[in-house]
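[agent] plan:
  1. take the single chain provided in the ticket
  2. run structure prediction with default settings
  3. attach C-alpha cells to the ticket
  4. add a short note for the reviewer (M.T.)
[agent] executing step 1
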Amino acid sequence: MPRSSPGVRRIVAILNFFAEHPHESFTLSDLVRALKLSRATCHGLLTGLVEAGYLYRTSDRGYLLGPALVSIGEVAKAHYSPLKAAQPEMRILADEFDIVCSASFREGTEVVVRERASAVSHLGYSVPRGWRAPLLPQFAGVFFVWSAPDEIETWLDGLSPPPSSSQREAMQTSITMIRRYGFFAAQRSSTASNLQSIEWFFKSAYEEAPLLPIFEIDEHKSYELSWVMAPVLDTNRNTVFVIGVQGFSGQYTGAKILSIGQRIQQACERVTTFIGRGPSKRAD
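[agent] step 2 finished; step 3 output follows
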C-alpha cells in the first residue's frame, strides 16, 4: 500500500496537535518541541498553513486553528455518513460476486435495509430500500457481536413471540462464530426450495426454518449458500450496520465461503476505519 509523503504526515501531525488542544495557542518553539520537527521545517509548514487560513498567527507569535477549518469542518460534519463510505464498497462486492449487496440496520426488534447495490443480473431483486422485517435471534448475532451479555438477554426477553431455547443458543453460537471468522453466513435447508416468498426468511420455528446459520466452515465441504454478512463497528465496537451479500445459488465450498467472507470483512473494516476517524460524539 502506498504511503503518504513525509510532508503530508507532518502537516497532519500539526493539525491533529491543534485539534487535541483546541483552547490553546502554541509558539513555533512549542511545536518544534512537541512534534520533534526541525525549526526550519516547522516554520515553513506553519507559514503555509497560515497562508491557507488553516492556522492563525496571533500578535504574540502564537498559532491557533484558523477560520478556513471552520467551514470545512461544518461541511464535513453536515455530510458525514458511514453509508457514503459503504456505497462504493457495496458496488464492488455486488459486481465482483454477481449478487445483491445491502446495508441493514437494526431498529429494536426489526432489521431495515437502508442501502443496496445490485449486479446487472439481480436488478429485479425484490427487497427495496426501506424494507423491514422481524429480526430473528439465530441471525441477530451480527448486530450484537461485542455486546454485553445482559444487553443480549434484555433484547431476547423483549421479543414476541419469545425465542425458543434453540434460537437463544443459535444466537450465542453465531456470536462466537463471528468473533472467530469476522463474518456470518447462512445456508438453505431442505425446506427452502418449495418457498417462493421473501417472508420465508423470517419463519419463527428455527428447527423448520428454510435458512440455517453456518456455525462451522469446512473448507472441503459444500454448502447451499444463501448469504454472507459482516458488521461495521463504531469506536466502541458496537455494530452500526451490517453489510451483507445475498442472491447466491448453487453449491459453494467452505474455502470459497471463507474467501467471500474475508472480502466482505475487509470492506467492513474500511468503513469501520472511516467511522473511527469521523466526528466524535460529545455530550451537550
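[agent] step 4 note for reviewer: The chain is about 40% helix and 20% strand.
[agent] ticket updated
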